[in-house]
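User: Can you recover a sequence for this backbone? Please restate the input before giving your answer.

Assistant: Of course. Working from this structure:
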């Protein structure tokens, strides 16, 4: 467990997976309103029980649980997870699966600490919406000068996704 004022970063417990995913969905709404449709947000909310079951099963089977960051009240304000790269021919062996921080914690350094806790200093890649300038700037700040955009792709019905990699 890492404590930094005013946040605590620690592995999530299986009984807080749903709360973690609700926080992630709120972060999506804060970040992507105007970029994604209301239907996309509604789909995220509808998929929450299945996502929670997936994460809980993975944790029970020995997967590293996502990291959560809590504020002084104990509320989850950030989440991150990473691990072995998925898919065919990934650009790095490590993938940052997710990092989300609520708007109230933007600019505090919390995102960088979550990424570091989730993937360490390994060269890694992450999926990021091409239209998310804030996230791209964040990853460029974390990355070595070799960060490069890869081929645009479509995932989960979102056509503006692209992949970038970094060697922290």
């Amino acid at each position: 467990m890492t404590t930094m004022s005013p946040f605590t970063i620690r592995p999530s417990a299986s009984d807080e997976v749903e709360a973690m995913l609700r926080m992630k969905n709120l972060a999506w709404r804060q970040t992507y309103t105007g970029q994604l449709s209301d239907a996309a947000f509604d789909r995220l909310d509808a998929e929450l029980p299945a996502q929670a079951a997936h994460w809980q099963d993975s944790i029970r089977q020995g997967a590293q649980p996502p990291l959560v960051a809590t504020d002084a009240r104990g509320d989850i304000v950030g989440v991150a997870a990473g691990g072995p790269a998925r898919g065919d021919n990934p650009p790095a062996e490590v993938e940052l699966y997710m990092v989300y921080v609520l708007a109230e914690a933007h600019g505090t350094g919390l995102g960088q600490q979550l990424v570091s806790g989730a993937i360490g200093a390994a060269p890694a890649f992450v999926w990021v919406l091409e239209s998310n300038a804030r996230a791209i700037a964040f990853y460029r700040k974390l990355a070595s000068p070799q960060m490069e955009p890869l081929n645009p792709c479509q995932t989960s019905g979102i056509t503006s996704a692209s992949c970038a990699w970094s060697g922290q």
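That completes the design. The longest strand covers residues 158-167.
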